[in-house]
């Protein structure tokens, strides 16, 4: 079966790739484009480690086909920092020790960024429900929730 | 090396602060390379074919159709491996089945192909003929005579006649006379408890990349809690010399004990050997759940006597753990730890290790202890409440302290259990009001902690910065802790030290990251390595000054003349000594190799409020506080993180998580949708209180903190549910249907 040619934008970069018809966006990102920041924890949409944004919408990239990226704007963890300067969420995650092993961190950061774009001033409960699709097995979430809310506060004050 | 004299008075400059972790930026930007992120030129994709049966004789395997597929470069079965040595025989059999498939998901063959798609398709062309055998997955059923038998001849001499060959060993601990103790009791509680198997649930599936040359030199990259263990085990299985196999640990996406053994690695090496190409293997989540270590499931009888003023007169427990298809469930540790928090005159535990048709259990955070604590702490709670006594007071009355003879043998040095209980009693959480259908539970927990083989090398670079090489993967901030201890000892800023996790070619043997050992043992070796470097730097300064090395002391990151020479020369800083090292004898380093004793046991008390929904049986966690002794918290944020993470894993174990097997012995919930670990919206903040009762076995007083935190929550949650609903749940998980049925029976 012949491969599909896809033209898309990833983290602002015009990108082209060839993929199989049944290949997930996550596999394309990781195996074809070398963007291994998105992780596969389950491959079934249950852990959030593969979270990316597609046209600003939070998506599990393991549940989307690579071919569906055609003409889209994809955002991954690799596009979160601007050059040397970390996104406030990235800074707060380090400051709050919101990661232990760090495997869930890229997905949680992408999801948390999407939360703050939709709701710049979330309550703790809103934060917990928004991030309920992102499993973290190490931290018990406490420091993650604090980091996200603290980043939201800083971002509100800065804007 | 003992606690530094006056350590309690020592003013730490860096230890106890919360600096940023050195690997933080890599991990928030996606740059950190975990197991599945490693690639090699020309690599193949390796996949495993797994048994669909719980128990089956493998009659034949025909790989010829798969081998004929273009793009397939190697197919491996057990026939490719030489007869293993006894110490790795079960490990190999678990990685690649021999005569029988012993559980649903057991590996029976593997394939390496030029793409994942080719490998997946070719896997279906391996023809395995199975003769399906009767199976058993329940521990009590497996012990009965007449149960389906997994192995003949594995039972050891501790097991009496008349039981199934599935019963492997019997363990007994304790002292005193149980009957005499029970005779003194005003009330005796006797109950049976059950816990289901749970999985460590690390978010990163197992992954590795192997390559091997025809000369026997091999390289392996993998996510593991111990790359030295991986080297030694793989070398033995593959018939390689340990020195010829270099293993590099990737970043590790969680382990909790589950990555203290090998699953894919020997298979990947064999595929690499046969194909002559690098081979990468990554498990799916369903493979992780079906074929890697869950914990043991258990069935436990407890009998405890208490006087009406709350003194425990006798404690007895009989524990039956199934550890999957091979001997080695942690029932011995469960039996040793069950009553460890208490000072008892009459105590006895008996443990039975049993095999069943389930995946071989792997360590999971304080292996064996949480289930034992669930049983004992539930029974103590029932007695205390029955007498109308304060459950914290009852525990204080019976608490082990310095000088107590532990139920498992040794006599305790200074320990922190009482401190956790007193602090819990004074904490506002204990007196906070509760609403309707709400209840509060407490429980205590214990873990041994461990030292183990450890090597650290500390190099002083020419510009006066410092690198620390250690051999334990950084699973939750340990690079930061090592850098902090090195900087503390050397008297230089934290930012001047960079700690790396070295490959197996760079250091001597290192025990896996287990037993909460890293901050203790690697920390100790780091401090000693720094001291060795300091001795050398003092020597160099003495040489420059023309005085005796003994007349030089190290203060605030610099050598200075001491005693009669004090003040004669200005101090020489570490950077100044480093700059001239080449002229004073060459590069400067310190190293330390040890197998330190004195890890220092650790205790915790957990307190939890729950609300029970009488209509659905759902349990909500309202508030949670952990009180635990850390000895000395090097980086308190990561100590809190260990407390919180362990507590939440315990909450999952108590309420949601379980292995569900069908009648056919096949795992029914091999995915994160149905094997449901706690998510953010299930939980409140997890409050923590760090107590610091210095461990006499470590120069700064450190005790391991990683494991104790999962021991109390099973019982604490169950006790809180009991307080909220009036029903005593003796079987985990306390899932809504189970609790609802119990509420209706009430
Ligand atoms: S890998 Fe996509 S949700 Fe788990
Ligand atoms: S930090 Fe390990 S899974 Fe979240």
In short:
The complex is a heterodimer of chains A (159) and B (746). Chain A contains five helices and five strands; from the N terminus they run ββαβββαααα. Chain A has helices at residues 25-32, 88-95, 105-118, 124-130, 142-158; strands spanning 4-10, 13-19, 51-54, 57-60, 73-75.
Protein model, in words:
The complex is a heterodimer of chains A (159) and B (746). Chain A is an alpha+beta fold. In chain A, 34% of the residues lie in helices and 16% in strands. Chain A has five helices and five strands; from the N terminus they run E-E-H-E-E-E-H-H-H-H. The mean pLDDT of chain A is 97. In chain A, strands 2-1-5-3-4 form a five-stranded mixed β-sheet, sandwiched between helices. In chain A, a hairpin with a 2-residue loop joins strand 3 (51-54) and strand 4 (57-60). Chain A is globular. Chain B has 746 residues and is of the alpha+beta class. Chain B folds into three domains: 35-133 and 205-252 and 259-291, Aldehyde oxidase/xanthine dehydrogenase, a/b hammerhead (Aldehyde Oxidoreductase, domain 3); 297-411 and 424-438 and 602-745, Aldehyde Oxidoreductase, domain 4; 451-594, Aldehyde Oxidoreductase, domain 4, CATH 3.30.365.10. Chain B is built from 20 helices and 26 strands. In chain B, strands 3-5-1-12-9-10-11 form a seven-stranded mixed β-sheet, with helices on both faces. In chain B, strands 7-15-14-13-8 form a five-stranded mixed β-sheet. A four-stranded mixed β-sheet of chain B has the order 16-24-25-26, sandwiched between helices. The interface between A and B is large, with 57 and 57 residues. The complex binds FE2/S2 (inorganic) cluster (2 copies). The site of one FE2/S2 (inorganic) cluster has 12 residues of chain A, from loops.
């Amino acid at each position: 079966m012949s491969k599909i040619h896809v033209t898309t934008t990833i983290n602002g970069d015009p990108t082209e790739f060839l993929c199989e018809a049944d290949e997930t966006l996550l596999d394309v990102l990781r195996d074809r484009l070398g963007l291994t920041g998105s992780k596969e924890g389950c491959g079934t949409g249950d852990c959030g480690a593969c979270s990316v944004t597609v046209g600003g919408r939070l998506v599990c990239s393991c549940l989307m086909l690579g071919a569906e990226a055609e003409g889209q704007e994809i955002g991954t963890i690799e596009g979160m920092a601007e050059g040397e300067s970390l996104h406030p969420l990235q800074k707060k995650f380090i400051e709050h020790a919101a990661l232990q092993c760090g495997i869930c961190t890229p997905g949680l950061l992408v999801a948390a960024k999407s939360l703050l774009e939709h709701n710049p001033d979330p309550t703790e409960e809103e934060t917990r429900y928004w991030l309920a699709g992102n499993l973290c097995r190490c931290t018990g979430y406490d420091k993650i929730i604090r980091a996200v809310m603290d980043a939201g506060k800083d971002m509100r004050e800065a804007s | 090396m003992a606690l530094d004299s006056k350590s309690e008075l020592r003013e730490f400059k860096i230890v106890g602060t919360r600096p940023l972790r050195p690997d933080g930026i890599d991990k928030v930007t996606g740059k950190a390379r975990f197991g599945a992120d490693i690639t090699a030129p020309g690599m193949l994709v390796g996949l495993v074919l797994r048994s669909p049966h719980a128990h089956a004789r493998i009659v034949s395997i025909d790989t010829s159709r798969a081998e004929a597929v273009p793009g397939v470069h190697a197919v491996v079965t057990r026939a490719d491996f030489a007869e293993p040595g006894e110490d790795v025989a079960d490990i190999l059999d678990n990685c690649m089945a021999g005569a029988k498939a012993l559980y649903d998901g057991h590996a029976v063959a593997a394939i390496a192909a030029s793409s994942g798609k080719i490998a997946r398709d070719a896997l279906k062309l391996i023809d395995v003929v199975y003769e399906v055998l009767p199976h058993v997955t329940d521990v009590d059923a497996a012990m009965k005579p007449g149960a389906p038998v997994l192995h003949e001849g594995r039972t050891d001499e501790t097991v009496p006649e008349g039981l199934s060959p599935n019963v492997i060993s019997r363990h007994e601990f304790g002292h005193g006379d149980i009957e005499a103790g029970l005779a003194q009791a005003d009330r005796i509680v006797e109950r049976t408890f059950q816990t289901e198997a749970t999985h460590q649930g690390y978010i990163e599936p197992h992954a590795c990349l192997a390559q091997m040359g025809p000369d026997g030199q091999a390289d392996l990259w993998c996510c593991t809690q111990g790359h030295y263990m991986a080297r030694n085990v793989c070398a033995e299985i593959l018939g390689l010399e340990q020195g010829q196999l270099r293993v590099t640990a990737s970043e590790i996406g969680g382990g909790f004990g589950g990555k203290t053994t090998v699953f894919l690695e020997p298979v990947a090496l064999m595929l690499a050997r046969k194909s002559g190409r690098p081979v990468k293997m990554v498990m799916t989540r369903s493979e992780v759940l079906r074929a890697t270590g869950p914990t043991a499931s258990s069935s436990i009888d407890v009998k405890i006597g208490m006087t009406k003023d709350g003194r425990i007169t006798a404690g007895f427990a009989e524990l039956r753990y199934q550890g999957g298809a091979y001997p080695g469930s942690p029932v011995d540790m469960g039996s040793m730890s069950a009553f460890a928090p208490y000072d008892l005159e009459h105590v006895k535990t008996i443990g039975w290790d049993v095999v069943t048709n389930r995946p071989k259990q792997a360590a999971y955070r304080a292996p064996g202890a949480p289930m034992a604590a669930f049983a004992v702490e539930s029974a103590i709670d029932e007695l205390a409440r029955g007498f109308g006594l304060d459950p914290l007071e009852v525990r204080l009355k019976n608490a082990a302290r310095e000088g107590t003879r532990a139920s498992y043998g040794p006599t305790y040095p200074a320990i922190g259990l009482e401190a956790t209980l007193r602090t819990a009693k004074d904490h506002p959480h204990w007196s906070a009001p509760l609403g309707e259908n709400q209840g509060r539970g407490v429980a205590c927990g214990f873990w041994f902690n461990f030292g183990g083989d450890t090597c650290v090398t500390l190099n002083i670079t020419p510009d006066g910065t410092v690198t620390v090489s250690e051999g334990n993967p950084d699973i939750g901030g340990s690079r930061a802790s090592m850098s902090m201890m090195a900087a503390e000892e050397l008297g230089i800023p934290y930012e001047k030290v960079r700690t790396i996790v070295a490959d197996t070619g760079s250091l001597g043997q290192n025990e896996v990251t287990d037993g909460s050992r890293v901050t203790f043992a690697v920390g100790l070796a780091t401090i000693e390595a720094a001291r060795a470097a300091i001795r050398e730097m003092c020597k160099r300064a003495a040489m420059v000054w023309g005085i005796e090395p003994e007349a030089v002391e190290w203060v605030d990151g610099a050598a200075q003349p001491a005693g009669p020479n004090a003040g004669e020369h200005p101090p020489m800083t570490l950077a100044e000594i480093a700059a001239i090292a080449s002229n004073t004898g060459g590069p400067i380093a310190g190293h330390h190799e040890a197998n330190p004793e004195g890890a220092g046991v650790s205790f915790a008390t957990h307190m939890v409020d729950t609300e029970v929904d009488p209509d659905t049986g759902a349990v909500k966690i309202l508030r949670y506080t952990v009180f635990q002794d850390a000895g000395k918290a090097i980086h308190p944020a990561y100590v809190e993180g260990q407390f919180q993470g362990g507590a939440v894993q315990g909450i999952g174990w108590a309420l949601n998580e379980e292995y569900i097997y069908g009648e056919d012995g096949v795992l029914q919930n091999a995915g994160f949708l149905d094997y449901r670990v706690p998510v953010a919206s299930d939980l409140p903040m997890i409050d923590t209180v760090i107590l610091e009762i210095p461990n006499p076995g470590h120069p700064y007083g450190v005790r391991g903190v990683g494991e104790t935190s999962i021991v109390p929550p099973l019982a604490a949650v169950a006790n809180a549910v009991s307080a909220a609903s009036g029903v005593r749940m003796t079987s985990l998980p306390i899932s809504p249907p189970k609790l609802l049925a119990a509420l209706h029976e009430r």
